[in-house]
Amino acid sequence: MRKYFLAILLAAASFAAHAVGGSPYGAYYGQRNSLFEALGVDSTSIVFVGNSITNFCEWHELLRNPDVVNRGIGSDIVQGVEDRMTAFTDGQPAKIFLMIGINDVSHELTADSIAGAILRLTEKIHKATPRTQIYLQSMLPINNSFGMYKRLVGREHVVRDINAILAEKAADAGATWINLTPVFADENGNLRAEFTNDGLHLLAPGYFAWRDALQPYLKD
User: Fold this and answer.
1) Cα-only R_g, the chain
2) Collapsing DSSP states into helix, strand and coil, what is residue 177?
3) How far is CA 196 from each of CA 1, 69, 190, 193, 211, rounded to the nearest angstrom?
């Protein structure tokens, strides 16, 4: 745990050089979170929380639901989500769909430390808004054959190990587990090539597959 928080502090320090408006995570984080705090959520909101993989989707259009709101921020980490969680918990939303962790993986942290941080975050969200249905989604597989993200090379197993821990303990943290790996992984366990053009982020077919996988949970 000490190694995890040390790495987070170092990451925050590196971001601080680019920070505006008092945000330790950089200008873009500060801009997005400023808007999120001003907009808020309410008891009808269905909130998607995460990093760039969440951020880059037009969720309300994809799901054809005006109650859906996007609270993703590119490059966000687990601690970053925790630091901004009041912007999406204070309104006691109907549902929260959380996916986070891949940027923490790129910081060379262990699967145990990242999974532990995600579970603690999930517990805090549950305590802050106990009537909200919380869905903890598995991290998506990556595909390093595209050669785009050097800090993720050789880290495929970390994603798999994190997901294994989360699958076992999500319920104890107050969340429903959603395993997206069968939808997104190819026969080698990598992100399906037709879903991405950089090995990490999604093209339209990937988001449509994600949409279809979430339909049973959106109807609850």
Assistant:
1) 16
2) strand
3) 33, 23, 11, 6, 16
Determine the 3-state secondary structure of 190 from DSSP: coil
**Per-residue pLDDT band at 7 (split at 50, 70, 90):** low
Rounded to whole angstroms, how far apart are CA atoms 116 and 122?
A: 10
Residues forming beta bridges with residue 50, ordered by sequence position: 72, 99
| 170 token code pair | 């999500």
81, 100 in Cβ contact below 8 A? yes
In the predicted model, is pLDDT for residue 179 greater than 90? yes
Q: In 41-196, at which residue ranges do the beta strands (DSSP E only) sit? A: 46-50, 68-72, 95-99, 133-137, 176-178
CA 139 – CA 22 distance, rounded (Å): 30
User: Rounded to two decimals, what is the model's pTM?
Assistant: 0.90
Phi and psi at 151, nearest 5°, equal -75, -5
Residue in 152, 139, 159 with CA at minimum distance from that of residue 198: 152
How far apart CA 205 and CA 98 sit, in angstroms, is 20
Indicate the helix (H) or strand (E) that contains 12.
helix 2-16
pLDDT in tens, 59-110: 999 999 999 999 999 999 999 999 999 999 999 999 999 999 999 999 989 9
Pick from 91, 164, 74, 176: nearest CA to 134? 176
> 156-174 pLDDT, tens per residue?
999 999 999 999 999 999 9
Residue 14 is encoded by which pair of tokens? 């590196």
pLDDT at 136: 99
